[in-house]
Amino acid sequence: MKKILIVDDDPLLRKVLQNSLEQKGYQVVSVGSAKSALIQFNQDVPDIIVSDVSMPEMDGFEFCRQLRSQPSGKLIPFIFLSAKNDLNDRIQGHTIGADSYLSKPFEMKELLANIEALIERSRRVHAEIVHLIEQLVSSQPPNVLANIHHNSSSKQIIAPPQTEKNESSPKPLPLTPAEERVFWETIQGFTNKQISERLFISPRTVQTHLSNILNKLNLNNRTQLVRFAYQQGYEKV
Protein backbone atom coordinates (compact mmCIF):
# COMPACT_ATOMS: atom_id res chain seq x y z
CA MET A 1 0.00 0.00 0.00
CA LYS A 2 1.51 3.31 -1.08
CA LYS A 3 1.82 5.99 1.58
CA ILE A 4 0.94 9.65 0.93
CA LEU A 5 1.96 12.51 3.20
CA ILE A 6 -0.55 15.40 3.10
CA VAL A 7 0.70 18.79 4.34
CA ASP A 8 -1.88 21.59 4.71
CA ASP A 9 -2.94 23.96 7.50
CA ASP A 10 -6.61 23.59 6.53
CA PRO A 11 -7.96 20.71 8.67
CA LEU A 12 -11.15 20.36 6.58
CA LEU A 13 -9.18 19.98 3.33
CA ARG A 14 -6.83 17.48 4.99
CA LYS A 15 -9.83 15.42 6.08
CA VAL A 16 -11.40 15.51 2.60
CA LEU A 17 -8.13 14.52 0.94
CA GLN A 18 -7.47 11.76 3.46
CA ASN A 19 -10.93 10.24 3.04
CA SER A 20 -10.79 10.42 -0.77
CA LEU A 21 -7.30 8.95 -1.04
CA GLU A 22 -7.93 6.20 1.49
CA GLN A 23 -10.99 5.16 -0.53
CA LYS A 24 -8.61 4.70 -3.47
CA GLY A 25 -6.44 2.33 -1.45
CA TYR A 26 -3.70 4.68 -0.29
CA GLN A 27 -2.33 4.93 3.22
CA VAL A 28 -2.52 8.59 4.22
CA VAL A 29 -0.73 10.58 6.91
CA SER A 30 -1.76 14.23 7.23
CA VAL A 31 -0.09 17.05 9.16
CA GLY A 32 -0.92 20.72 9.57
CA SER A 33 2.48 22.34 9.14
CA ALA A 34 5.69 22.03 7.18
CA LYS A 35 7.72 21.60 10.36
CA SER A 36 5.55 18.67 11.40
CA ALA A 37 5.91 17.28 7.88
CA LEU A 38 9.72 17.29 8.12
CA ILE A 39 9.55 15.45 11.44
CA GLN A 40 7.09 12.92 10.02
CA PHE A 41 9.21 12.45 6.89
CA ASN A 42 12.32 11.67 8.91
CA GLN A 43 10.40 9.14 10.98
CA ASP A 44 8.72 7.35 8.10
CA VAL A 45 9.52 8.17 4.47
CA PRO A 46 6.33 8.25 2.33
CA ASP A 47 5.97 7.31 -1.32
CA ILE A 48 4.70 10.77 -2.33
CA ILE A 49 4.02 14.18 -0.77
CA VAL A 50 1.12 16.57 -1.46
CA SER A 51 1.72 19.98 0.11
CA ASP A 52 0.11 23.41 0.36
CA VAL A 53 2.25 26.48 -0.28
CA SER A 54 0.81 29.16 2.06
CA MET A 55 1.35 27.89 5.62
CA PRO A 56 2.42 29.65 8.84
CA GLU A 57 5.97 29.40 10.23
CA MET A 58 7.33 27.63 7.16
CA ASP A 59 5.74 27.80 3.73
CA GLY A 60 5.60 24.96 1.23
CA PHE A 61 8.43 26.34 -0.87
CA GLU A 62 10.85 26.25 2.06
CA PHE A 63 9.55 22.81 3.04
CA CYS A 64 10.26 21.48 -0.45
CA ARG A 65 13.68 23.15 -0.47
CA GLN A 66 14.67 21.54 2.83
CA LEU A 67 13.29 18.19 1.73
CA ARG A 68 15.29 18.22 -1.50
CA SER A 69 18.46 19.02 0.45
CA GLN A 70 18.25 15.63 2.20
CA PRO A 71 19.56 12.51 0.43
CA SER A 72 16.38 10.59 1.25
CA GLY A 73 14.20 13.42 -0.07
CA LYS A 74 15.79 14.06 -3.44
CA LEU A 75 13.69 11.55 -5.41
CA ILE A 76 10.40 11.65 -3.46
CA PRO A 77 7.53 12.63 -5.81
CA PHE A 78 6.24 16.04 -4.68
CA ILE A 79 2.99 17.81 -5.61
CA PHE A 80 2.09 21.38 -4.69
CA LEU A 81 -1.63 21.94 -4.13
CA SER A 82 -2.05 25.68 -3.70
CA ALA A 83 -4.42 28.65 -4.03
CA LYS A 84 -1.44 30.65 -5.28
CA ASN A 85 -2.00 30.37 -9.01
CA ASP A 86 0.31 33.13 -10.23
CA LEU A 87 2.68 32.08 -13.02
CA ASN A 88 5.71 33.10 -10.98
CA ASP A 89 4.52 30.96 -8.06
CA ARG A 90 4.14 27.94 -10.31
CA ILE A 91 7.57 28.52 -11.83
CA GLN A 92 9.10 28.88 -8.36
CA GLY A 93 7.47 25.65 -7.25
CA HIS A 94 8.91 23.70 -10.17
CA THR A 95 12.30 25.40 -9.81
CA ILE A 96 12.57 24.41 -6.15
CA GLY A 97 11.92 20.79 -7.02
CA ALA A 98 8.19 20.06 -7.19
CA ASP A 99 7.13 17.47 -9.77
CA SER A 100 3.65 18.94 -10.19
CA TYR A 101 1.76 22.11 -9.23
CA LEU A 102 -2.04 22.07 -9.04
CA SER A 103 -4.16 25.13 -8.25
CA LYS A 104 -7.06 25.27 -5.80
CA PRO A 105 -9.90 24.68 -6.43
CA PHE A 106 -8.89 21.42 -8.07
CA GLU A 107 -10.50 18.30 -9.44
CA MET A 108 -9.87 15.16 -7.38
CA LYS A 109 -9.55 13.16 -10.60
CA GLU A 110 -6.67 15.37 -11.71
CA LEU A 111 -4.91 15.04 -8.36
CA LEU A 112 -5.32 11.26 -8.46
CA ALA A 113 -3.98 11.15 -12.00
CA ASN A 114 -0.91 13.13 -10.92
CA ILE A 115 -0.34 10.91 -7.89
CA GLU A 116 -0.61 7.70 -9.90
CA ALA A 117 1.63 9.01 -12.68
CA LEU A 118 4.36 10.18 -10.29
CA ILE A 119 4.31 6.97 -8.26
CA GLU A 120 4.60 4.94 -11.45
CA ARG A 121 7.46 7.13 -12.69
CA SER A 122 9.24 6.69 -9.36
CA ARG A 123 8.78 2.93 -9.60
CA ARG A 124 10.26 2.85 -13.10
CA VAL A 125 13.24 4.98 -12.08
CA HIS A 126 14.05 2.79 -9.09
CA ALA A 127 13.52 -0.39 -11.11
CA GLU A 128 15.92 0.84 -13.80
CA ILE A 129 18.55 1.73 -11.20
CA VAL A 130 18.26 -1.72 -9.64
CA HIS A 131 18.43 -3.32 -13.10
CA LEU A 132 21.63 -1.44 -13.93
CA ILE A 133 23.14 -2.46 -10.59
CA GLU A 134 22.21 -6.09 -11.21
CA GLN A 135 23.87 -5.97 -14.63
CA LEU A 136 27.07 -4.51 -13.19
CA VAL A 137 27.14 -7.02 -10.35
CA SER A 138 26.40 -10.04 -12.53
CA SER A 139 29.21 -9.08 -14.91
CA GLN A 140 31.84 -9.50 -12.17
CA PRO A 141 33.84 -12.73 -11.77
CA PRO A 142 32.63 -14.96 -8.90
CA ASN A 143 35.62 -14.20 -6.69
CA VAL A 144 34.97 -10.47 -7.04
CA LEU A 145 31.20 -10.72 -6.72
CA ALA A 146 31.45 -11.79 -3.10
CA ASN A 147 33.20 -8.52 -2.26
CA ILE A 148 30.97 -6.10 -4.14
CA HIS A 149 28.69 -3.72 -2.33
CA HIS A 150 26.50 -0.92 -3.60
CA ASN A 151 27.00 2.70 -2.64
CA SER A 152 23.77 4.28 -3.87
CA SER A 153 24.67 7.72 -2.54
CA SER A 154 27.27 8.07 -5.29
CA LYS A 155 25.42 5.74 -7.68
CA GLN A 156 28.52 3.55 -7.99
CA ILE A 157 29.40 -0.08 -7.49
CA ILE A 158 32.52 -0.33 -5.37
CA ALA A 159 34.59 -3.43 -4.69
CA PRO A 160 36.22 -3.47 -1.25
CA PRO A 161 39.99 -3.21 -1.68
CA GLN A 162 42.11 -6.24 -0.84
CA THR A 163 44.56 -5.65 1.96
CA GLU A 164 48.08 -7.02 1.98
CA LYS A 165 47.35 -8.70 5.33
CA ASN A 166 44.95 -11.16 3.73
CA GLU A 167 46.96 -13.89 2.04
CA SER A 168 43.79 -15.49 0.65
CA SER A 169 40.37 -14.23 -0.20
CA PRO A 170 37.50 -15.12 2.16
CA LYS A 171 35.17 -17.89 1.10
CA PRO A 172 32.21 -16.84 -1.06
CA LEU A 173 29.15 -16.07 1.01
CA PRO A 174 26.24 -18.54 0.75
CA LEU A 175 23.94 -15.64 -0.11
CA THR A 176 21.98 -14.39 -3.09
CA PRO A 177 23.28 -11.24 -4.84
CA ALA A 178 20.56 -9.15 -3.15
CA GLU A 179 21.46 -10.58 0.26
CA GLU A 180 25.14 -9.91 -0.38
CA ARG A 181 24.43 -6.22 -0.96
CA VAL A 182 22.50 -6.02 2.31
CA PHE A 183 25.35 -7.90 4.02
CA TRP A 184 27.93 -5.33 2.97
CA GLU A 185 25.71 -2.41 3.96
CA THR A 186 24.93 -3.98 7.35
CA ILE A 187 28.54 -4.60 8.37
CA GLN A 188 29.25 -0.94 7.61
CA GLY A 189 26.83 -0.02 10.38
CA PHE A 190 23.88 1.26 8.35
CA THR A 191 20.36 0.91 9.77
CA ASN A 192 17.54 -0.82 7.88
CA LYS A 193 16.11 2.55 6.89
CA GLN A 194 19.47 3.78 5.60
CA ILE A 195 20.02 0.55 3.68
CA SER A 196 16.58 0.80 2.10
CA GLU A 197 17.39 4.31 0.89
CA ARG A 198 20.84 3.33 -0.39
CA LEU A 199 19.65 0.21 -2.22
CA PHE A 200 16.23 1.54 -3.29
CA ILE A 201 14.29 -1.23 -1.57
CA SER A 202 11.71 -1.14 1.23
CA PRO A 203 12.75 -1.46 4.90
CA ARG A 204 10.64 -4.63 5.06
CA THR A 205 12.66 -6.15 2.20
CA VAL A 206 15.88 -5.19 3.99
CA GLN A 207 14.67 -6.96 7.15
CA THR A 208 13.72 -10.04 5.14
CA HIS A 209 17.17 -10.21 3.53
CA LEU A 210 18.85 -9.62 6.91
CA SER A 211 16.85 -12.43 8.51
CA ASN A 212 17.85 -14.76 5.67
CA ILE A 213 21.49 -13.76 6.07
CA LEU A 214 21.48 -14.48 9.80
CA ASN A 215 19.77 -17.83 9.27
CA LYS A 216 22.19 -18.92 6.53
CA LEU A 217 25.22 -17.93 8.61
CA ASN A 218 23.79 -19.37 11.87
CA LEU A 219 23.97 -16.00 13.61
CA ASN A 220 21.53 -14.31 15.98
CA ASN A 221 21.97 -10.57 15.50
CA ARG A 222 23.83 -7.71 13.79
CA THR A 223 26.63 -7.70 16.37
CA GLN A 224 27.43 -11.32 15.66
CA LEU A 225 27.24 -10.61 11.93
CA VAL A 226 29.86 -7.85 12.15
CA ARG A 227 32.11 -10.06 14.28
CA PHE A 228 31.71 -12.88 11.78
CA ALA A 229 32.64 -10.57 8.89
CA TYR A 230 35.91 -9.54 10.51
CA GLN A 231 36.82 -13.00 11.74
CA GLN A 232 36.28 -14.49 8.28
CA GLY A 233 38.28 -11.78 6.54
CA TYR A 234 35.49 -9.66 5.08
CA GLU A 235 36.93 -6.19 5.46
CA LYS A 236 34.69 -3.35 6.58
CA VAL A 237 34.81 -0.61 3.94
TrEMBL record:
GO terms for molecular function: phosphorelay response regulator activity; transcription cis-regulatory region binding. It holds the Pfam family Response_reg. The keyword Transcription applies. GO terms for biological process: regulation of DNA-templated transcription. SUPFAM superfamilies: C-terminal effector domain of the bipartite response regulators, CheY-like. SMART domains: HTH_LUXR, REC. Transmembrane segments: none annotated. The modification 4-aspartylphosphate is found at residue 52. One of its GO terms (cellular component) is protein-DNA complex. This is Response regulator. The lineage of its organism: Bacteria, Bacillati, Cyanobacteriota, Cyanophyceae, Pleurocapsales.
